[in-house]
Amino acid sequence: MDDVATETSTVRDHSTAIVWILCSAAFMAMLDVFVVNVAFTSIGATYRGSSLADLSWVLNGYAIVYAALLIPAGRFSDRIGRKTGFLVGLAIFTVASLANAVAPSLWALVAFRVLQAIGAAILTPASLGLLLTVLPPGRVPGAVKIWATTSSFAAAFGPVVGGALVELSWRWVFLINLPVGIVAAVAATLLVPDLRQQVRARVPDLLGVALLIVAIGALSLGLVKSADWSWAGLATLGTLVVAAVGLILFIVRMVRHPDPVVTPALFRVRTFVWANITVLAFCTAFGAWFLSIALWLENAARFNTVETGLAIVPGPLMVPVFAAVSQKLIKRMPVGVVVALGNLLFAAGTVLVIASAGTPVQYAAQILPGWLITGIGIGLALPSMIASAAVDLPPDQSATGSAVVNTARQLGYVLGVAMLIALLGAAPEQLLTAFRHGWWFVAVAAALSAATAFGITPRGK
Description:
CATH class of the largest domain: Mainly Alpha
Number of domains: 3
Number of helices: 18
CATH superfamily of the largest domain: MFS general substrate transporter like domains
Largest sheet: none
CATH architecture of the largest domain: Up-down Bundle
Shape: globular
Strand content: under 5%
Structural class: mainly alpha
Oligomer: single chain
Number of strands: 0
């Protein structure tokens, strides 16, 4: 009994440090989904003679592998222990970052990006799983919201960080991960407790793992390459068919196998299901929105990389402020209502930009007001969405369940970017019209996430 009390006291003493250790690593993993976008041109200049299609795999290889491995990696962490999974993923990610920085050729860089994505896929669900299991129960909801907020910052500050580092060299985009990774690994080893299951989990359904990787990998591939292949092209349709067949076969295995990759019981939790649907719709809007504003400022306003990054900052600054506001609102009203309100503000801010945008671009009058409103909406909605999906998960399924949530997030980002690029490409000669089409897509997706958010509220509340 004394040992248990001592361990609990230790966790409480270090709970704040544990939150920031786990959040910093998750932030770093998500940052690399977005930060390389601004280094793209500089990388191409280094590896002269590389085609745009070849260069795109620096981005696509990471996005596809990251999305495809999140759920299997979460199951892996549930089996070997979430602290071990976190440290393994962090080590792979950090070593791969160093390899990326010294890559001698483009295809070596692509290979190391894939390795980096494997590390990110392991540490992301493990970090959220640890938050759910090692902290005192009273700290868990707030910690999950901090985790969600810091990882959403990655999408927003990626262009800022990337733009500043590229001024030195694109290789610094990867080198910056080394000190963060080393410090996080040492701190996690010393401070994060290793709470393992009493009964060791069996090896999960390996065929199910393979089917899930194929299904999500094919879906991600079809989405990210749709602009190059066209939505009606044989290659796009073929990958989407493979994804659909793989998903159907995976569901059959999940229902029938005695130890499936994802326990079907998770999908009987009403709030978990609706939270994942809401996260998917929200992140579809989120991924398209941030990229569209960056592209609009670069192409219509003719901002350089650093100017674009600085212009993006005010919106994300609203996120932590209104994440705190959302915690107070949830004490007075159902969580689904708060999330719906945030997503409606997201949609309203987008519509305001549609109504006011024009050429020549006047950032302060045309973009900033709507940009700030969407930041407020994101702050109200996103942390509560992630918390609602993750807090009530069974302890032995916490990493797997959080991986499902993060897979929905990542697929949303990929879908949003793919749809935006398709819409912008449909009318390249009419820049404002093309962007308005993209922004209407964002507004509709945000409004859809507001409608589904009401399902997040537990029955009877």
